[in-house]
């Protein structure tokens, strides 16, 4: 029996295509600073969540250490940018240092822990992430402690950098957007994220992706037909750690600040889990939708509720319910509704309904 994609799966891919187009042209469509910050954060979290989906969605591994690897990449670049000054050498060396540390920790955790039951592995990764957060806070001479590290990005990304100039030597404007270092920084984030996402998409579409799904569905059967389950799980754990580390490096270059709250906080891990659940596990399209929706909600739900509260100011009780300070309450309600109506996530549920025999 052949599987024919119909409206559900096609619709999901169209939505992803629209998101990609909006992110590609974000500097021209949304020219305020906040919107560009939102677009850059969406790009980075798409990669971060997709790399986590390699674990939980494609292999069935539950890990709470993903922010640790993200933090390794961020701190690697941040520390060297602070000590060596702005330039590409500290970015590359810091990124490589983050990858190396992530690989060492991932191999150690994988080989030592992936033989145990899932809940024990999850607890071990949680403990490792907690240790990393404590060390980042306490090694203040290296990491800046709770205050974090502020540094300068490479000169190419400075607002004063002129990428294109007009006849008078001034910064050229295209569609009202100045061609300076700020737009270079955004497209560095976008293109780097697109390349990493494309590589993960290629990975899950390869024979390795099929093996990972087989391990997720029935570990004992995969082991019985000759696949070394621990080796495969350790390998994908390492790949996921490397991609998360690279995402951290990209974010550090964009943000020009790295601290425990922006790179290692457990709040980031919760965001990743929410994005995976909202978008759908076991599909690379899910992280795109989940990351986009949650980041937009985090930045704009308060504003939307403020406008709604003003609009219904004459109605009893409603303005109090829609008070912007209650935005987390409404975000929780929306999350519950999404899980109820889309039990496999938006992309997962739609694609399941969108394929017929």
Task: Outline the structure in words.
The chain has helices spanning 7-24, 26-29, 33-56, 66-84, 88-113, 118-138, 140-143, 181-204, 207-217, 219-224, 229-255, 260-263, 266-279, 285-311, 318-321, 327-341, 346-353; strands spanning 4-5, 149-150, 173-174, 177-178, 257-258, 355-356. By secondary structure, it is mainly alpha-helical. The longest helix is centred in the last third of the chain and has 27 residues, at 229-255. It starts with a strand and ends with a strand.
Helix and strand topology:
Layout: E1 4-5, H1 7-24, H2 26-29, H3 33-56, H4 66-84, H5 88-113, H6 118-138, H7 140-143, E2 149-150, E3 173-174, E4 177-178, H8 181-204, H9 207-217, H10 219-224, H11 229-255, E5 257-258, H12 260-263, H13 266-279, H14 285-311, H15 318-321, H16 327-341, H17 346-353, E6 355-356
Antiparallel strand pairs: 1-6, 2-5, 3-4
Helix pairs in contact: 1-14, 1-17, 3-8, 3-11, 3-13, 3-14, 4-5, 4-11, 5-11, 8-11, 13-14
Helix content: over 70%
CATH top-level class? Mainly Alpha
Mass-distribution shape? globular
Order of adjacent strands in the largest pleated sheet: 1-6
Largest β sheet strand count, sense and barrel closure? 2 strands, antiparallel
Structural class: mainly alpha
Q: Are there runs of 5+ residues with pLDDT below 50, and where?
A: none
> What is the oligomeric state here?
single chain
| CATH architecture label | Orthogonal Bundle
Q: Number of DSSP helices?
A: 17
Note the run of SSEs as H and E.
EHHHHHHHEEEHHHHEHHHHHHE
Named CATH topology: ABC transporter involved in vitamin B12 uptake, BtuC
Keywords: Cell membrane, Membrane, Transmembrane, Transmembrane helix
InterPro entries: ABC_transp_permease, LivM-like
GO molecular function: branched-chain amino acid transmembrane transporter activity
Main location: membrane
């Amino acid at each position: 029996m052949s599987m024919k994609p119909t409206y559900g799966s096609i619709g999901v891919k169209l939505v992803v295509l629209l998101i990609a187009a909006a992110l590609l042209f974000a500097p021209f469509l949304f020219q305020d600073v906040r919107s560009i910050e939102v677009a850059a954060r969406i790009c980075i979290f798409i990669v971060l969540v997709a790399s986590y989906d390699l674990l939980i969605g494609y292999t069935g591994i539950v890990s709470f250490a993903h922010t640790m690897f993200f933090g390794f990449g961020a701190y690697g670049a941040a520390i060297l940018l602070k000590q060596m000054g702005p330039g590409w050498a500290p970015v590359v060396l810091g990124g490589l240092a983050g990858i190396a540390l992530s690989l060492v920790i991932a191999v150690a955790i994988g080989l030592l822990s992936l033989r145990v039951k899932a809940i024990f592995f999850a607890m071990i990764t949680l403990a490792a992430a907690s240790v990393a957060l404590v060390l980042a806070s306490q090694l203040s001479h290296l990491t800046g402690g709770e205050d974090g590290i502020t540094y300068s990005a490479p000169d190419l990304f400075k607002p004063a950098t002129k990428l294109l100039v007009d006849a008078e030597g001034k910064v050229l404007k295209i569609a009202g957007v100045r061609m300076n270092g700020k737009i270079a920084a955004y497209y560095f984030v976008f293109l780097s994220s697109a390349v990493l996402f494309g590589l993960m998409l290629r990975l899950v579409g390869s024979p390795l992706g099929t093996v990972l799904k087989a391990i997720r569905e029935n570990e004992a059967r995969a082991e019985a037909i000759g696949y070394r389950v621990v080796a495969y799980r350790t390998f994908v754990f390492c790949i996921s750690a490397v991609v998360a580390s690279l995402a951290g490096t990209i974010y550090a270059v964009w943000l020009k600040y790295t601290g425990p709250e922006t790179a290692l906080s457990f709040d980031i891990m919760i965001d990743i889990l929410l994005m995976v659940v909202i978008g759908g596990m076991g599909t690379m399209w899910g992280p795109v939708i989940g990351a986009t929706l949650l980041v937009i909600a985090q930045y704009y739900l308060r504003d939307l509720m403020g406008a709604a509260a003003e609009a219904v100011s004459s109605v009893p009780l409603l303005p109090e319910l829609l008070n912007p300070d209650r935005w987390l309450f409404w975000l929780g309600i929306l999350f519950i509704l999404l899980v109820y109506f889309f039990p496999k996530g938006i992309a997962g549920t739609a694609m399941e309904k969108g394929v017929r025999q």
